[in-house]
Every structure is written in C-alpha cells, then in structure tokens.
Automatic annotation (TrEMBL):
Gene: 25499657
UniProt-recorded name of the protein: Nicotianamine synthase
Source organism: Medicago truncatula
Catalytic activity as recorded in UniProt: 3 S-adenosyl-L-methionine = nicotianamine + 3 S-methyl-5'-thioadenosine + 3 H(+)
PROSITE patterns: NAS
Enzyme class: transferase
InterPro entries to which the protein is assigned, alphabetical: Nicotian_synth (IPR004298), SAM-dependent_MTases_sf (IPR029063)
Enzyme Commission number: 2.5.1.43
GO biological process, one term: nicotianamine biosynthetic process
Pfam family, one: NAS
Length: 320
C-alpha cells in the first residue's frame, strides 16, 4: 500500500471517529461540515481496494457506511419536510444541495439504460425510494414521460412524505405509485417490471445486499434489467460495493465509474434466462426517446466531459 493510500485511510478513520462520536446525525453545521469533508476526501479517483484492508479498518468502514446511510436519511427527511411546506414542492427541488447530482446521475443511468433496452418501459420499480424520490422524479420528468414508477420503501412515513411532494403535479401524481413493503416480502409483483432500480443503501452490508439481489433474481421477469448502484475506490468508504460475482442469475452488461461529484458507480445487468421468443435479447421493441423525443440510439458519452465524468465504462467480458 502506497503512502497516499495510507494517508487517505488515516484521514477517513479520523473523520469516522469524529462522526461516530456525534450526538446526532441530523442536519446541522457540524454534521454537514464533517460529511462534506468525508465526501471530498473519498471523491478523487483512487486505486485503493477496500476488500484488502485490515479487519479493523473493514469494521470501521462497515460502520461508517451505516452512519452515512443514517445521515442521508435524516437529510432527505429534512428537505422533504421543507419542500412539502411549499404549495408546489416540485418547483423548489433545487434547494436540495445534491439535486444537480441527481440530474447528472439520472442522465447517466438513462444513457446506459438506453444502450441495453430499446423499448419505452411501461413500469419501473425503484426499491428504496425514501422521502425524497429524486431518481424517480428526474427520470419521469426528463427521460421517461410516459412510464409509471412504482416506488418501494419499508418506511410508511417516507412514502407519505414522498407522495405529498408529487401530489400537486397532475402528471407525476398519476405516474408515481408508492408501496410500503420490505422488498423481501414482494414476489409476484416483481414480474411486472421491465426495469428494477436498487438504491445504494438498500442492503448496507454484503450479506444483506446479496440476499436482496438473490430475491430479485428469483422473482424478476426473465430478461428484465436490474440497475444498481455501487462504489469504486475510496468511494467504497461511503457506499456498499456490488461485485459482478454478487449478481447470481444476472448477466452483467456494463459497469460505469464516474469520476466527478456523482459518487455512485452504476451496474446494469439482465436477468437470465432469456425468453426463447426474443430475437434481440431484450424485452424491447422500440428505441428509447431522449428528452426531445427524437427516435435515436442514445450515446451515453455524447455531451459529457470525458476528462472528468468518465473514469471507466466496461463490459464484463467474462460474463458475456
């Protein structure tokens, strides 16, 4: 391990010690400052492999991911309540400090999705949508204006807050459905979705994440796409990592590691086995439109800052 990596780990552990000693993780000046410093520390591309860290550091990393998840939950609830106080909450989404990240992430995910699905999906499931379902909102607004989004969250209060945010918009309120369920209790309904999104913090340790992925692999429709979020390099101190080997029952199609302020890596896979009647290896028959509804194959590299945004876009050759 090089000197830079040792310094990085030392800084992350120092921030972990400060964060874990906080009385509360609810938004306030000190909490915001520490988590901002943590994110900025972990953001630069790094060759570090968190799986090779000593057990003591692994344990702190696992706890830190849970603390990040808890803080993120408080932050979303805080801003969902603020937004919910407006007559038209969706007109004020920009007040959420990471809204621009969701715009970029939505663009990236739709771009990658468009490479592997040529059909405008009727129904998408988002698992772990939370009180501020920005991914569903961004995709519904900017990229998929006729698709219905089924948002799953285990917390009824989160769903109530999220439903309130879209209730003033006639279009989105018709296309956003909210289900209060543990996704492990959902089986037959999963077959209805052509695309399933799995939020980064649904399953915050390896065992829990793999249990959920295995459940999806068992109950999703054959040929359906699974889009999930992972982490790469030092960003794996913030979010769980999903390896290709974790996706049993799925064909990994591509893995994308952003190199800017979009923290999460993007993994897209397709459930085996392929339907026998499918000739194009998808559930799809039409080309996804872009925001302007032009019929074209969407190039995910078009219009992006190649030097900053894209660190890696790979096809897992071993699983093809």
């Amino acid at each position: 391990m090089g000197c830079q990596e040792e310094l990085l780990i030392a800084k992350v552990i120092n921030l972990y010690e400060q964060i874990s000693s906080l009385e509360t993780l609810k938004p306030c000046k000190n909490v915001d400052m520490l988590f901002t410093e943590l994110v900025l520390t972990c953001m630069p591309p790094s060759p570090i492999d968190v799986t090779k860290l000593p057990n003591t550091v692994q344990g702190k990393r696992s706890h830190l991911i849970r603390l990040c998840g808890e803080a993120e939950g408080y932050l979303e609830r805080h801003y969902s309540a603020i937004l919910g106080s407006y007559q038209n909450p969706l007109n004020h989404l920009h007040i959420f400090p990471y809204y621009s990240n969701y715009i970029k992430l939505g663009h990236l995910e739709f771009s990658i999705l468009s490479q592997h699905c040529t059909h405008v999906p009727n129904k998408i499931a988002f698992i772990g949508s939370g009180p501020l379902p920005l991914t569903s909102i961004v995709l519904a607004w900017n990229h998929l204006p006729s698709t219905t989004f089924h948002n799953y969250d285990i917390d009824p209060l989160a769903n109530s807050s999220a439903k309130h945010l879209v209730s003033s918009d006639p279009d989105l309120s018709n296309r956003m459905v909210f289900h209060t369920n543990d996704i492990l209790d959902v089986s037959n309904d999963l077959k209805d979705y052509e695309i399933v999104y799995l939020a980064a913090l649904v399953g915050m340790d390896k065992e829990e994440k793999n249990r959920i992925i295995d459940h999806l692999g068992k109950h999703m429709a054959p040929g359906a796409l699974l889009m999930l979020r992972s982490a790469h390099g030092a960003r794996a101190f913030l979010y769980p990592v999903v390896e290709a080997s974790d996706l049993r029952g799925f064909e990994v199609l591509s893995v994308f590691h952003p190199a800017d302020e979009v923290i999460n890596s993007i993994v897209i896979s397709r459930k085996y086995p392929m339907p026998k009647h499918s000739h194009d290896h998808s559930l799809c028959s039409m080309i996804l439109p872009n925001k302007c509804s032009e019929i074209q194959v969407f190039n995910p590299l078009r219009g992006l800052n190649h030097g900053n945004m894209i660190e890696e876009l790979t096809i897992d050759d071993q699983l093809m």
